[in-house]
Amino acid sequence: xxxxxxxxxASPIRTTGHTVCPHDCPSACALNVDLGxxxxxxxxxxxxxxTYTAGVICAKVARYAERLYHPxxxxxxxxxxxxxxxxxxxxxSWDDALDEIADAFVKAEARxxxxxxxxxxxxxxxxxxxxxxxxxxxxxxxxxGFFGSICTNMAWTGYVLGTGALRGPDPxxxxxxxxxxxxxxxxxxxQVNVMTHAMKARKERGAKIVVVxxxxxxxxxxxxxxxxxxxxxxxxxxxxxMHIAFRDGYADRAYMEKYADDPTGLEAxxxxxxxxxxxxxTGLTVEEIEAFARLIGTTKKTFFRLGxxxxxxxxxSVAMHAALSIATVLGSWxxxxxxxxxxxxxxxxxxxxxxxxxAYADPDIRMLDQSQIGRVLTGDAEALRHRGPVxxxxxxxxxxxxxxxxxxxxxxxxxxxxxxxxxxxxxMTETADVADIVMPATMFVEHDDVYRGGGHSHILLGPKIVxxxxxxxxxxxxxxxxxxxxxxxxxxxxxxSEYEHIDHMLxxxxxxxxxxxxxxxxxxxxxxxxxxxxxxxxxxxxxKFRFRPDWENGRAPNKPPASVGNxxxxxxxPVFPDQVDLIEVADAEHPFRLATSPARNFLNSxxxxxxxxxxxxxxxxxxxxxxxxxxxSIADGDVVRIGNGRGTLRIHASxxxxxxxxxxxxxxxxxxxxxxxxxxxxxxxxxxATAPHGGAAFHDNKVWLEKAVG
Length: 710
Prior knowledge:
Blueprint: E1 15-20, E2 30-35, E3 41-46, H1 59-62, H2 64-68, E4 78-80, E5 89-91, H3 94-112, E6 117-121, H4 128-141, E7 145-147, H5 153-163, E8 179-183, H6 187-190, H7 192-205, E9 208-213, E10 225-228, H8 234-248, H9 253-259, H10 263-270, H11 275-282, H12 286-297, E11 302-306, H13 316-330, E12 339-341, H14 353-356, E13 367-369, H15 373-377, E14 392-396, H16 400-403, H17 407-414, E15 420-425, H18 430-433, E16 437-440, E17 449-452, E18 458-462, H19 475-485, H20 498-508, H21 514-520, E19 522-524, H22 529-532, E20 592-595, H23 611-617, E21 621-624, H24 626-631, E22 639-644, E23 647-655, E24 663-665, E25 701-707
Parallel strand pairs: 6-14, 7-13, 8-9, 8-11, 9-10, 11-12, 14-15, 15-16, 20-24, 21-23
Antiparallel strand pairs: 1-2, 2-3, 4-5, 4-16, 17-18, 18-19, 20-25, 22-23, 22-25
């Protein structure tokens, strides 16, 4: 099929293709895609047959044809001509592109050793084969390791140190709850299926919806009870709620005696964590805290849907653990439609050893922190693990020159004259702009892959349903071709097709193979009720929930290797759930707290290239409370300057009651070049590792704000 750069206009439907949304979202929606007689996609819908997707998907994915057939899509490999970032390119063949990458890697290894090459990737696709095959090449060549810290670490750590496992009640039980608490996630914008089931509970059961967040976002507007807390203070709210539960008899003492490690110690600890104490920290009123505690304390079937957003603080793991602990104090886990859910990662049991080449992994190879790429590329000794420089990068599925914290360091590092960068992408992202070689990548409907839904319970097949442009290649192709050129293609795991990788992985994991999955479309892996609700014990050896988490030595899904050890100020973490001010507390010089929350029409930096998403979002702006705006003589639409020790930028102000005084919210993620001075919001975010296992605190920034002059 000849590819043309014309957006698909609805054409007569030939058939329906079944696939999966590949993007970095817990929903992993099952999709039905209209296919025209010309072999092009039309409308994309959520599958009504899938009991979690339930026929509902977000608008940005529904219009995916706009992205697939975008006139600016990359379709040929390119070589940089002139200076980095100058924007002058020469089209080259695939063989030339791959030969030059392999040659650059061989030269980098000869100068500084194999660790000079850093394969850098993330979750631009959540497909297991296209995302993780790069690890096989990394292990085979002994290149620097990739510690993927940027997204999940604080949340997963806080949850698992409580439960002992990364799983929970069936998310579809939200529809069977009498109260749904959506804590720290703007689900209307980022996990629409959470709202599908919450609204069903409201309609069919009269369930109350409570939203805890830092601003009046679209999810808050759907709430029966909305609690707007100051950023980084969620643990204080959780502690006060548990204080009230013990005080007023809502605590299920018999349940805790059987299932928790130290309820007596927790109760004693919480004696001083009163609603008045929490009100002074969170900005809520005592009445709001009391009403929330009373509602969930008198509603046995309360389902706590705990998101990622409130954990993207320097005390994020503590906040997650504290919010999670409420369900144990109340005994909510005992009931269908009750308990606390964050992610189902443990239930899928996917054996990826062949795919990732773990059999020949060398534990002595250094692991570099994804979040600290700016520090790595500018020669920070600690970030480099006190070893040699990184002089070559292979980047797939991520856009660090836009999304990584400490953007000025990131940009400085990428512009190094001795750094070789190869990028495999859909568009000329800001990372591709500063690369040496850029290669065009397939999109999800153009290749086979398998997905797992962290926000639900399904393994889903995403088969190829349309042909890609003739000159576009899969991630797997790039890895296989580089393996041939670098002399490791004979190692286990190489030379396999997507079909073979998926089939082998599923069978090695105890599931049926590719053909069965294709026929069934998904496998429902949800454990039975007692296991999902931990009624036969939590995941720790003694079966007890941990009110006293072992921050230093406890099990966590993504701990740094032993050679790195624990990260951040671990000694400051509390014995019991508590508010700890590891956050960037506002001060006289930086009187505002800034959060960089997700926008409805973007997904990280994806979709920021599509016209409709950009039009719907308008322009980069920062939300400012009217009282703050009046004090600083800022009017709606004014250009303001915002800054801290990491940098400054200019941005338009949106004066709104959606944020509380002293709080700023910049929804994104907009490209850097969409901002007034070509620098984006992540100039202001930090890459210092959070305790205990690292991660990027994107929503935890103290800043100053002023009206721009001139």
